[in-house]
Amino acid sequence: MSLASARAYLAFPHLEPELRAELEPLVAAAERGEAQATAELEDRFFEPLAFGTGGLRGFMAAGLRRMNRPNVRRTTLALAAVAQRRAPGKRVAVVGYDTRLNSDVFATEAASVLAAAGYQVFLGTRPLPTPFLCFAMKALSSACGVIITASHNPKEYNGYKAYNDLGGQVVEPWDAEIEAQMAALPVVPVPPVVPPGRISPIPVEVENAYLALGRDLLQHPRPFEPARILYTPFHGTGIAFVPALFEAAGIPLTISPSQGVQDGTFPTAPRPNPEELAAYAAPLREAGAMDAEVILANDPDADRIGVVALREGAWELMSGNDLAALTLDYLCTQKGRSGAVVSTVVTSDFMAEVARHHGLPVVWTLTGFKNIAVCMDRLETLGEAYAFGAEESYGMLLPPSLRDKDGVTAALVVAEMAGHYKAKGLTLFQAVDALMAKVGTFHNRLVNLEDPRPGGAKRFAEAMGRIRAAGLASLGGERVASWEDFQTGLWHGESGTETILDRPDRRGVALPIPRSNVLKFRLQSGAFAAFRPSGTEPKLKVYLQSRGDAAQLDRMEAEARALLGL
Question: 0.85 cut: is pTM over it?
Answer without folding.
Answer: yes
